[in-house]
NAD kinase (Aliishimia ponticola), 253 residues
Amino acid sequence: MTTRIAFTAANATVAQTARAALTGRYGNVPLEEADVIVALGGDGFMLDTLHATQHLGAPVYGMNRGTVGFLMNEYSEIDLPRRLYEAEDEVINPLAMTAHLKDGTVAEALAINEVSILRAGPQAAKLRIYVDGRLRLDTLVCDGALVATPAGSTAYNYSAHGPILPIGSDVLALTAVAAFRPRRWRGALLPKTAHVQFEVLEPEKRPVMADADGKSHRDVVTVDVRSDPAVQHRILFDPGHGLEERLISEQFT
C-alpha cells in the first residue's frame, strides 16, 4: 500500500531545500489527505506542526533540519517509506492552560512541552501555588515556575534543573525557575491528573506573563494548568530512538 505523505518545513533554507528534494522524490499530498505528515525543521517547528495538525488523524514524523532536534529523527532522503512503515508510534497528551489576565480577559492554550509562569519586569515574581484546590506553597519568590510534560521535561524544565520524566510515567514536573524564597525549593513531581493553579501576588508591582509552547500572555493574575487527555498527539520515531530511549540516554550525557 502506498503511503501518502504530506511534507511541511520550517522557513530556514536548509529545511526548504530538504522539502524540495523529498517532494521531488516521493511526491506530496495536502495535509488533510496524508497518511503521515513529515515535518522538516527543529523541535520548535515540530511543536508548531503538532499543534496545527492536531485535528487530523495522521501521525507526525520529524526529520531534523534545525538545531536541537530532540523530537526529530535523523535526516535522510533514502528509503523514507520504509522508515515510516517501521517507525514506532508515541502518543502524548498536551497541557491545557487557562490564564486570567488583569484586564478581565481569559486566554486558553495547549502546550505539548510546558506551561511557564515568568516574571515580566525587573522584580522577581511572587506566586502562590495550589494543587487540586489545596494550598501547597504560600509564597514562591522566583524568576518563574513551570509545569512540564514528560515529552517536555528535557526542554526548558531540564535547563531549570527540573527532573527528566520517562514517557508513560503519568507524572508532571512542577519546577521553579531561579527560586529566591524558599531558596532550596526545587519543585515537585505531581500525578498527571493534577490541577495546578498559580496565583500571582502583587501583580501591579511584579508583573507576570504566562507562556504555553511559545504563545505568551502578559499581565496574568491566575493560571490554571492540567493535562488534557482528550487531545492526543502521535509522533513517529525510528526503532530504538523513541522518546523513551531519548529520555533515558539524556540522563547519561
In short: Helices lie at 13-26, 43-52, 80-86, 156-159, 243-250. DSSP finds five helices and 17 strands in the chain. The first strand starts at residue 5 and ends at 9.
